[in-house]
Amino acid sequence: MAKSTREYGEKAQRALGMWVKLARAYATFNKTTVKDIRRYGLTQPQFGVLECIGHLGPMSIGELSRKMLVSGGNMTCVVDNLEKEGLVLRRHSDEDRRSVIVVLTKKGSDLFETIFPQHAEFITQTAAVLTVDEQEELARLLKKLGSAIER
To answer: What is the count of structural domains for the chain?
Structure first.
């Protein structure tokens, strides 16, 4: 016979309920944003690389991997595909010639400047189901949860 979450106690039931709601909200929000990103002809990781470099400037594959929480091998593949499309290129670092830095090309920069404002507006509209105060509170709570777990 299947167990009910009630059998684990009130604290566990509350935590499990929160986790399920968080997971479902993330899955739904992510599915919606991936669909928006695909209309630009990009995968989510490709869009993420363009966004990172577009906002933060050139960085190594290792830095990109840490920012996007993916493996270095996966990031290398993403950068390879963006390079084939002429959106990024690799340069040796001026400080350390062993280090390779990923930079946006003119084509990549132009694409980023065109699509990111549209995507930002899409995210804004999607999040508008919450009030400004609710969005700020949710962001604060998620940061608190993530920071505590990360330690």
So the answer is: 1
